[in-house]
């Protein structure tokens, strides 16, 4: 599962449980809608933590950073993908 800037602080996340699969959270550090520290604190309180990717100098809508977002997602999920098939 991939979560982009989860709205912690804008919604009640107290009962949110980790999914039964690998989980990637990508958080823009300059998010103007979701307070990044609230997301970090929420993740710190989880027993089963997702993989967290912090994107510096990035706003909530990833303006001019979509290629960086693509790379973060590709790198974040790579270990959970099957090996490439050859031939």
Give a verbal description of the structure.
- With 87 residues, the protein is an alpha/beta fold.
- The chain has a domain at 33-82.
- It has helices at 36-44, 66-77; strands at 2-4, 24-28, 51-55.
- It has a three-stranded parallel beta sheet, sandwiched between helices.
- Strand 2, helix 1 and strand 3 form a beta-alpha-beta unit.
Secondary-structure topology with pairs:
Layout lengths: L1 E3 L19 E5 L7 H9 L6 E5 L10 H12 L10
Parallel strand pairs: 1-2, 2-3
Can you give keywords for this protein?
87 residues, alpha/beta, 3-stranded parallel β-sheet
Describe the structure in brief.
The chain has a domain at 33-82. It has two helices and three strands, in the order ββαβα. It has helices at 36-44, 66-77, and strands at 2-4, 24-28, 51-55.
Taken in chain order, the helices and strands follow as: EEHEH
Mean pLDDT: 94
Helix/strand-derived class? alpha/beta
> Rough shape?
flat
Low-pLDDT residue spans: none
Give the strand content. 5-15%
Question: Which sequence of strands runs across the widest sheet?
Answer: 1-2-3
Total DSSP E strands: 3
Fraction of helical residues? 10-25%
Q: Give a short account of the largest sheet.
A: 3 strands, parallel
Terminal CA distance: 29 Å
Oligomeric state of this protein: single chain
> How many helices in DSSP terms?
2
Tell me the Rg in angstroms. Answer: 14 Å
